[in-house]
């Protein structure tokens, strides 16, 4: 997938060094519920075992195709936000040097479009942990609507219970008569 400034492509083990560079930062993973990476080997294992979802993508700048973050639609069985086939959860993070350029709204908008138009989703969920204003703002920019809050137990990744605020976006299905009105 391509956006104005970005390429979204599958992760490969060759991305391990870049992943480690950004994922060792304590300001990145914990905000999203996972601990900072401790080695390139750990990053390689994450690429192999975690970033292997059908709709998990590395975010790259067009100029160099280097992975700088991830965006994913977590499908049925890989999210606890829903157990429906036609619903999924959007997740994302970006390396700190790239924050504040509107990259995540740009990347996520492309994946949301794919979710609704190509994957047949009717509702896409997205959450942020209490206090994560940057992520709240991304969801607001994308047009997510607040739905409910719940206590999320982050074990075994992080031994914390946090309040998660869940929002959703619903596909607008236009009836033919509305279009011709
Ligand atoms: C949340 C995140 C993906 C945002 O990505 P992004 O591409 O920087 O998003 P935007 O450029 O649209 O910035 C969103 C908001 O973050 C804040 N922000 C951006 N850069 C910032 C910086 N360097 N320092 C502090 N706040 C910053 C601003 O409030 C901004 O809103 P604005 O554009 O109205 O000013 C990124 O901050 C991140 O990866 N954070 C850590 C992991 C995480 O929280 N993941 C989401 C889990 S739910």
- Bound heterogens, unique: coenzyme A
Q: How many beta-strand elements?
A: 7
User: Cα-atom Rg, whole angstroms?
Assistant: 16 Å
Our estimate of the beta-strand percent is 25-35%
Order of helices and strands: EHHHEEEHEHEEH
Given as residue ranges, the uncertain stretches (5+ residues, pLDDT < 50) are: none
Strand order of the largest sheet: 1-2-3-4-5-7-6
* Class by alpha and beta content: alpha+beta
Residue-averaged pLDDT? 95
- Number of helices, counting only DSSP H or I runs of 4 residues or more: 6
Q: State the end-to-end CA separation.
A: 34 Å
**Sheet with most strands:** 7 strands, mixed
Shape label: globular
Helix content: 25-40%
Describe the structure in your own words:
With 181 residues, this protein is an alpha+beta fold. It is 29% helix and 29% strand. A 7-stranded mixed beta sheet has the order 1-2-3-4-5-7-6, with helices on both faces. Strand 4 (87-94), helix 4 and strand 5 (123-129) form a beta-alpha-beta unit. Helix 1 (16-23) packs across helix 3 and helix 4 crosses helix 5 (133-142). The protein starts with 5 loop residues before the first strand and ends with a helix. The structure holds coenzyme A (COA). Coenzyme A binds next to helix 2, strand 4, helix 4 and helix 5.
């Amino acid at each position: 997938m391509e956006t104005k400034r970005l390429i979204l492509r599958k992760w490969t083990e060759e991305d391990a060094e870049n992943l480690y560079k950004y994922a060792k930062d304590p300001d990145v993973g914990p905000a999203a519920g996972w601990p900072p990476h401790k080695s390139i080997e750990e990053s390689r294992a994450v690429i192999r075992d975690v970033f292997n979802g059908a709709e998990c993508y590395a975010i790259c700048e067009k100029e160099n195709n280097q992975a700088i973050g991830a965006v994913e639609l977590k499908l049925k069985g890989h999210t606890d936000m829903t157990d429906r086939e036609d619903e999924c959860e959007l997740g994302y993070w970006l390396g700190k040097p790239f924050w504040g350029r509107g990259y995540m709204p740009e990347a996520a908008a492309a994946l949301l479009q794919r979710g609704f138009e190509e994957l047949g989703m009717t509702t896409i969920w997205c959450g942020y942990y209490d206090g994560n204003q940057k992520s709240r703002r991304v969801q607001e920019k994308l047009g997510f609507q607040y739905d409910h809050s719940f206590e999320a137990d982050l074990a075994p990744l992080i031994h914390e219970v946090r309040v998660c605020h869940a929002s959703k976006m619903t596909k607008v299905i236009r009836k033919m008569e509305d279009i011709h009105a």
